[in-house]
Amino acid sequence: MTSSATPRYQQIAQMLRAAITNGSYKVGDLLPTEQELCATHDISRHTARDALRLLTEAGLVTRKRRAGTVVAASSPPNLFVQPLGGFQDLLQYARDARLTILAYGPAPADGFARDLGQDPAGWKELRGQRGTGTAMVGLTRILVRADCAPSQAEIEARPTIADAIEARFGIAASRIDQQISAMVLDNQLATLLGSEPGAAALRTRRLYHDGNGALFLASESAHPADRFVYSMSFNREKAE
């Protein structure tokens, strides 16, 4: 039973979640509109919107303008958990979060190379999706130095682009710099990710340097907050 102390929007979200879980609303079904929820439950438009936002953040529904709120899953999708540890943990993400290539070619003048202060003429850019099974956990763009850029077939044949580069050109990362920052999804990213514009997300940027310290590979990914989490464990050190 829902406590009376529970905010009204959470009560409505819990009720709708239960209806999705028990099959009253199946995947692909439309949920009641905000106006219908307001009329049925005597709530404000703001309360209805917040209730649907909770379901969206849980990955149970997707909300699209003029299409309504559609049930996307019967249970919340599992988060992709990325250990935030050593060198091998960073490489493991690329191996576990499967890459689907959407585009791969010369780096555009207004793309990732420009953001990194690099001359686009010397690079190739890949854009793709990261996922586990059928669940997409993020969008990624990857910059590869043109003189060590594998073919798309070589990339698809290896667990990671770094593996493909090492196999083809003998260049391996000796240092990876990682930056993690908060972001909100703009309209374009939200549409591609099936999320709500303005939803919270994580941006991860990784810069791969060879043995001479030269940048040869870079990646930047956007992960909706409800699909991705970084995890660390700390052991208390014993006093001397």
UniProtKB/TrEMBL annotation:
<protein>
    <submittedName>
        <fullName>GntR family transcriptional regulator</fullName>
    </submittedName>
</protein>
<keyword id="KW-0804">Transcription</keyword>
<dbReference type="Pfam" id="PF07702">
    <property type="entry name" value="UTRA"/>
</dbReference>
<keyword id="KW-0238">DNA-binding</keyword>
<dbReference type="InterPro" id="IPR028978">
    <property type="entry name" value="Chorismate_lyase_/UTRA_dom_sf"/>
</dbReference>
<dbReference type="InterPro" id="IPR011663">
    <property type="entry name" value="UTRA"/>
</dbReference>
<dbReference type="InterPro" id="IPR050679">
    <property type="entry name" value="Bact_HTH_transcr_reg"/>
</dbReference>
<dbReference type="InterPro" id="IPR036388">
    <property type="entry name" value="WH-like_DNA-bd_sf"/>
</dbReference>
<dbReference type="GO" id="GO:0003700">
    <property type="term" value="F:DNA-binding transcription factor activity"/>
</dbReference>
<dbReference type="GO" id="GO:0003677">
    <property type="term" value="F:DNA binding"/>
</dbReference>
<keyword id="KW-0805">Transcription regulation</keyword>
<dbReference type="GO" id="GO:0045892">
    <property type="term" value="P:negative regulation of DNA-templated transcription"/>
</dbReference>
<dbReference type="InterPro" id="IPR000524">
    <property type="entry name" value="Tscrpt_reg_HTH_GntR"/>
</dbReference>
<dbReference type="InterPro" id="IPR036390">
    <property type="entry name" value="WH_DNA-bd_sf"/>
</dbReference>
<dbReference type="Pfam" id="PF00392">
    <property type="entry name" value="GntR"/>
</dbReference>
